[in-house]
């Protein structure tokens, strides 16, 4: 009764595995490659990970399975923001584990890392797993953002793991969660627990990728979902010809999601945070850049358009970051109470004016009042401004409106400007996984079990060559320490997986850069439509434009 026809049909879908994993468990052998080094700071990372550093990269091949027979009891968690395909990672893991030995056990720890700390889990069986095959969401066991990083936490996890007889833990998460997976693996090895730890690369933001991990799962489905909506909006804009639509898309920091959506839909404007930072653009320069397109189109009679704004944009604007830092300082400690006690906005405004440097106050002063107030209303538990809550789509449309009013007064702009605002984020995180994500995720999970079975720890499940058909995908594993470097986090130098930002000399940005001038002036909209699950492979199994451009030989 509660199952839609599509969900019912998706239960029947058989995800595609890489060719080398299709021969049955008995026919999967391992091939070890070269020893690895971290991407930077080798000596420091090696010293911090003496038991797991420098291990060999590995690939699986067709051949006699030589892994030692051992009953496996595996614990799995989902960590961080939802991403389409998470359920299939668990399904792939479960199927490989049961195909190896039906007495093997898979425990799902609930609510993310908290589940491991609280020893709160469910044991999966066929009926349980079958209800989640090829579905979106993380509701199978839930997720959470608790960071597993202290020795005390690791000791609790190790104790709970021993209590349940766990032989391995699989962490499905982003760069932070997999950094923690590497540290947990090192702890487990250093303390001779015999418990292995394997990671799987997740995040719709697309910023967990490198020379080994070609894409994080969920990026494909989420960007296809947003692109469908943006394409529909473009068509509406082109039909009514009376609105500019400002569309903010998720991506906490990197602009991969915005860039992919732009490549899919060819909007008039797409801001890229990494470019804004590299060119040290000011808010006024960004505003002028958008206003130039609105003016040129308006003067041609096209009083409509679409602009994509990445969620993390304001933190890439140097003068805005400086302003945020000064506000955090201004309201540190008891000064928040002093500020909150002021009787009205005018008194607060004067307090701010007196507390900021002249440079930062001039930035503050050009912001629309609702953004000025947002900066002081929305604070995180540490009292800092919550930058992700700033409605940057409204910020830029308001600033463009003000700029156009000036241009109208000067007689250069002759058009009309009406704006609509959208934020696409949560809409895409739990969509039914595309065929690509369903296949990729299932393969990552299946492969994670092969890594466990062959005794590896501190590895990320790796499936590569993914711009090609699944038959040609290459399954294997990479030591997580290979992706690490030292970074300053909260005043301390820490070993972390390097976050992948948009590369301004990479093929996806270069393509965008070569076309955006034309897109800004003309109407070159592209309408991708909804994700297709059934039909010809060239429609249903297509992956992202980003991946296609990055992998184009
Ligand atoms: P992950 O990095 O954990 O995958 O989450 C990314 C993300 O989806 C961002 O795009 C977004 O800024 C954030 O999660 C929102 O988080 P929350 O679900 O806590 O509101």
Structure in words:
- The structure is a single chain.
- The chain is an alpha/beta fold.
- The protein has two domains: 15-30 and 54-218 and 433-481, Rossmann fold; 222-311 and 391-428 and 506-550, Rossmann fold, CATH 3.40.50.
- It is 44% helix and 15% strand.
- It is globular.
- The mean pLDDT is 96.
- The structure holds 1,6-di-O-phosphono-beta-D-fructofuranose.
- 1,6-di-O-phosphono-beta-D-fructofuranose binds next to loops.
Brief synopsis:
The chain is built from 23 helices and 15 strands. The chain is α/β, with parallel strands linked by helices.
Specify Rg, calculated over alpha carbons: 25 Å
CATH architecture type of the largest domain? 3-Layer(aba) Sandwich
Share of β-strand residues: 15-25%
What bound compounds does this protein have? 1,6-di-O-phosphono-beta-D-fructofuranose
Strand order of the largest sheet: 1-2-13-12-7-6-3-4-5
Q: How many discrete structural domains?
A: 2
Number of helices: 23
Structural class determined from secondary elements: alpha/beta
Q: How confident is the prediction overall: mean pLDDT?
A: 96
- Described by the principal axes of the CA atoms, the overall outline is globular
Please give a handful of descriptors for the protein shown.
553 residues, alpha/beta, Rossmann fold, 9-stranded mixed sheet, 4-stranded parallel sheet, 23 helices, 44% helix, globular, binds 1,6-di-O-phosphono-beta-D-fructofuranose
Secondary-structure map with pairings?
Blueprint: H1 5-11, E1 28-35, H2 42-48, E2 56-62, E3 73-78, H3 86-100, E4 105-109, H4 113-118, E5 121-123, H5 126-130, H6 151-163, E6 168-173, H7 175-190, E7 196-201, H8 219-240, E8 244-249, H9 256-265, E9 269-270, H10 273-278, H11 283-299, E10 305-310, H12 313-316, H13 318-330, H14 335-340, H15 345-355, H16 358-366, H17 369-377, H18 392-409, E11 419-424, H19 426-429, H20 435-453, E12 459-464, E13 474-479, E14 484-489, E15 492-497, H21 507-521, H22 537-540, H23 545-551
Parallel strand pairs: 3-4, 3-6, 6-7, 7-12, 8-10, 8-11, 9-10
Antiparallel strand pairs: 1-2, 2-13, 4-5, 12-13, 14-15
Helix pairs in contact: 3-20, 8-9, 9-21, 11-18, 13-16
The protein binds 1,6-di-O-phosphono-beta-D-fructofuranose.
